[in-house]
Amino acid sequence: MSTDLLAHPEQQSRGAAATKVPVTVAYGDGIGPEIMEATLAILDAAGAQIAVEPIEIGERVYLAGNSAGIEPSAWDSLRRTKVFLKAPITTPSGSGYKSLNVTVRKTLGLYANVRPCVSYAPYVSTLHPKMDMVIVRENEEDLYAGIEHRQTDEVFQCLKLITRPGCEKIVRYAFEYARSHGRKKVTCMVKDNIMKMTDGLFYQVFEDIGAEYPEIQKERYIIDIGAARIATKPERFDVIVTPNLYGDIISDIAAEMTGSVGLAGSANIGEHVAMFEAIHGSAPDIAGRGVANPSGLLLAAVMMLVHVRQADVAAKIHNAWLRTIEDGIQTADLQGERTTKTVGTASFAQAVIDRLGSKPNVFAAVSYVNPAVVTKREKPLYVRAAPAKKHIVGVDVFLHNTGSTPDELGNALKALGTHALSLQMITNRGVKVFPGGFPETFCTDHWRCRFVSASDKDFISHRDIISILSNVTEAGFDVIKTENLCTFDGERGFALGQGQ
Ligand code: NAD
pTM of the full predicted structure? Predict the structure, then answer.
């Protein structure tokens, strides 16, 4: 049975000092209000010392014209309480609405998404009875930066941004989590065989920081085979750390494998604020019927109670919940051979309340420890290195061009070189097509034309780039964008073209 998350220092000292910890609560949309009421009733009956500050977010706020789905006053509450218990919300369909979850995570710097995925066999049917893994997903970066552009008739682009501080924060969080929760192994899942620079950085940081945790076993999986192994042998994983997109996908797969999306809670941890929520959405198909499973939100609230140093109440609730599941009292989504009574949301909450103070008979009872009160981290979450010596050695000029063959384009651009920069190659979708391209290579209308200095020792100025750009545009080419080619302390800071 997994225990819960590492509370950060600010929350630790705040929680200890206050009698009732203020918590910002959003009741959300769809099944949100039903499962939030059930959850708060259980917390109240268990003696949780929290003072609820309700805020409104979600569908009604969106439809009232706020494209972010959250009012300014809600931010005030979140920044004051620093603890957020959130029910799922509905994002209206249509392109004008920004994802509230992404906005909250990024605005408040909630860099770590922590998702325990645990099987409750034989009481909840699952093909994988021995699953007990925690997925630690990077929450702010990667393709989720939302920087997307249409560049040509045929080509759309989404920028994948991975930063060193971002990798350091999430990787250190994963190792600290493993250490403080008695976990034995951290697995890094990346695609660094293809994305050698971005995912390569993530893995490099995993190796560097992992060396500081000798007692924890480390392993690396390429995400595709890693995801396949999660699906077939989940019992071999303990803590998994991974960039945003892969984490988004594998954490849904893993949660579904435990038996129901209604079961899993998650924490979104930042340096200042933490948010706790179920992983599922607002389930409009069953909203208002009083049949939703409140367990995901309840287990998220259990994580929250540990975070605000009410570990004894957290354990009391978690054990009563396990006992309820063992007794076969289950909501419709969990219905199976072991169900003795199918109940609705409120009756399920009452069943948990009736068992407060009981321990499970078959599952191991859970115990939590309040995180230690520390005001300063032993190790900083990230270290900003001294700036490297950066030199420009070339420039990639991206063109929107139709109608020319690679050789025609290459020969025209060659003639536009300057004393400082000359055309080295052209790629199309990353594959070299000039000089010496293959006629079989499919070309679209998006060309990356690499101009480099005559020698690696000759550095290029911004003015040299402007000169090449004026030559190219004056010749009638449609320049979409440029990317400088730089070295950092002499190390190449750009990928070679395929076939280069
Ligand atoms: P969903 O998770 O709401 O529902 C998927 C399926 O699981 C449905 O059949 C639903 O009935 C069932 N289900 C979900 N939670 C359940 C529970 N607690 N008990 C019993 N059954 C449950 O996913 P969706 O239908 O794709 O999305 C619905 C809405 O939720 C969308 O507007 C989406 O944007 C939003 N959403 C919000 C969040 C969030 O706020 N964190 C997360 C995911 C989706």
Answer: 0.90
